[in-house]
Amino acid sequence: MKPNTSADAFTNSLDDYLNHGKMPSGTEKHDPEVADLLDLGKKLSEIDFGARAYKEQTRKAVFAATTASDSATIWQKSWFIKGAVAAAAVSLFVGVMFSPPAIAGEWMGKIIKTLSLGYIEIQQVEPENIPVPYELQGKIFDEHGNALTQMSVSDQKVYTADGEEIAGYSDGVIITKQDAERDLKDIGMTTIHDAAKLNDYTNFEVKVPAYLPEGYQFERAEQYNNDDGLPAPEYINLYYRNTQGQELKLFQREASEETAYGLSTESRVEEIEINGQPAALIGDSSIDWQSDGVLYSLAADKTGQSLNKEELIKIAESIK
Fold first, then answer.
1. Would you say residue 107 has pLDDT above 50?
2. CA distance 140 to 147
3. For residue 44, with 0-12 CB atoms within 10 Å meaning exposed, 13-18 middle and 19 or more buried, which class applies?
4. 220-278 confidence digits (pLDDT tens)
């Protein structure tokens, strides 16, 4: 299989722009998205990705990965690019994507429905298998060791030739789950076990559910650290667990362009209201919404006897 011609043309244009500083004639006028991508490529080429910038992008990817759905691909809004050159642009982005399967991110299926909830955007897409990107052909395998030529955009796990699970890829380089976990460890994390201290390191008021199903109780909260070693004040993740070990997750983040995110999912997306605010119910196990300058993502564990959507909505509406 030959490389995509649009991607190949874009790569050649980028090389010329980086080497000679000249954008193809008429690009800015007739192809503004391509012009923006060329500028982005130039800026990325000037960054030292072996140091602080790489960790910052990894951190952003972690923060973007809300648990809205097991079949969701999550993207940071500021990174989401539409148009014919999207496939070529993917290789420019640096950072580990922690949503299954990250490799399929820009090749999602036909969009059936889109919900815009302030700084959150939800897309329901048509189930579809996509061709393995050209640069990854012969490099990714299923759990049986068979090389993949196509892959599901929803819940298929993929592996290296050595059987290591793949978390994503950056600049054409495969990143294994082990690599991703190592990078997370380098970033560092603050764990909070005392619910009375949830607001100690946030820019916003952390709200907790007034209602929890029987057996559930607060277990911990987590905040990934900034480069100064202190918890990032824009984000906090709350975890609740019941006596059977099932987990309920409530992710909160300060609403801004920096923290905005979107996700694409094959699960059914239903528009509902949470305390008078528009919200997205994804499948029957997660809800995303924005309220009073905070983004919320509530997700129930799908293992065992999972919470039904009525219980999930009741929990969400008790967060005031």
1. no
2. 6
3. middle
4. 999 988 878 889 899 999 999 999 999 999 999 999 888 888 877 888 999 999 999 99
List, in sequence order, every beta strand (DSSP E) within 77-203.
Answer: 111-117, 120-125, 129-131, 150-152, 166-170, 173-176, 189-192
> Coil, helix or strand for 265?
strand
CB 251 within 8 A of CB 66: yes
For range 211-215, the mean pLDDT:
95
CA distance 120 to 136: 30
Radius of gyration from C-alpha coordinates of the chain: 20
Angle among Cα 64, 67, 70 to the nearest 5 degrees reads: 120
Pull the structure tokens for residue 308: 């039904």
Which residues on neighbouring strands pair with residue 231, listed in sequence order?
Answer: 225
- For position 278, what pLDDT does the model report? 97
Residue type, 12: N
Q: Token digits for 170?
A: 């950056």
The contacts of residue 281 (CB under 8 Å, 6+ apart) are: 269, 270, 271, 272, 287, 309, 312, 313
Across all residues in the chain, what is the average pLDDT? 75
Which H helix or E strand runs over 14? helix 5-20
Contact (CB, 8 A) for 267 and 72: yes
Query: Token pair 């189930």 is at which residue?
Result: 127
